[in-house]
Design a protein that fits this description.
With 196 residues, the chain is mostly helical. The protein is built from eleven helices and no strands. It is globular.
Length: 196
């Protein structure tokens, strides 16, 4: 019966992939429908709108979005790639570090996949020649970078809403990420045979 609570997410997927509506329109429509369905009290609705449209929240969203787009458009990933390759960093740590740095500085999944992974295609390989360990390492670096990013909008807005501190969140987030990273690479060990 708990699946009924997933209907807003299913609605978003339906609007985007089946009706081909833009993401922002789909989110707005879903928010309106959920609000009409839930019928929150006027006080709760007022507080929610006050938080969502506060100058501080809008400034944070705008700043993070602009910074992410700047990194994406400025070809920072290419500069980072040239810098690291000029230092003769081995391929495996290179794949991890480039995507990790891009992920942690931009907090955008599409940024590290859209900028770093194409640069690493000569190492990762293409089509049937893909080296699994390099692909996994590159993806893991970007993913964990995004998870640890201090500018991730989900983290920033959550901290603001609950009045929490970065130090308190990272006290749990860092160990969990390190554990996930250890599990990822322990599962990837069998793939090392494909490096030759």
């Amino acid at each position: 019966r708990y699946l009924i609570y997933f209907w807003p997410f299913i609605l978003i997927i339906f609007l985007i992939f089946f009706l081909r509506l833009p993401v922002d329109i789909s989110l707005l429509l879903t928010a309106v429908i959920v609000t009409l369905y839930a019928r929150p009290e006027r006080k709760d609705l007022k507080e929610g709108l006050k938080f969502a449209f506060s100058i501080k929240i809008l400034a944070v969203v705008l700043a993070v979005t602009m910074f992410t787009q700047y990194v994406y458009d400025s070809r920072a990933a290419e500069a980072l790639y040239r810098f690291m390759t000029s230092r003769n960093i081995p391929p495996l740590p290179l794949c991890f570090l480039i995507t990790f740095v891009i992920g942690v500085t931009t907090a955008g999944e599409y940024v590290y996949t859209g900028t770093a992974l194409p640069l690493l295609s000569t190492i990762i390989g293409t089509s049937s020649g893909i080296k699994d360990i390099y692909l996994l390492t590159s993806y893991a670096g970007g993913y964990f970078g995004v998870m640890l990013s201090p500018v991730h909008l989900c983290l920033v807005l959550t901290l603001e809403y609950y009045g929490a501190r970065y130090s308190g969140v990272y006290r749990y987030l860092v160990p969990a990420t390190l554990l996930s990273l250890a599990i990822t690479f322990s599962l990837a060990l069998p793939l090392q045979g494909g490096l030759a």
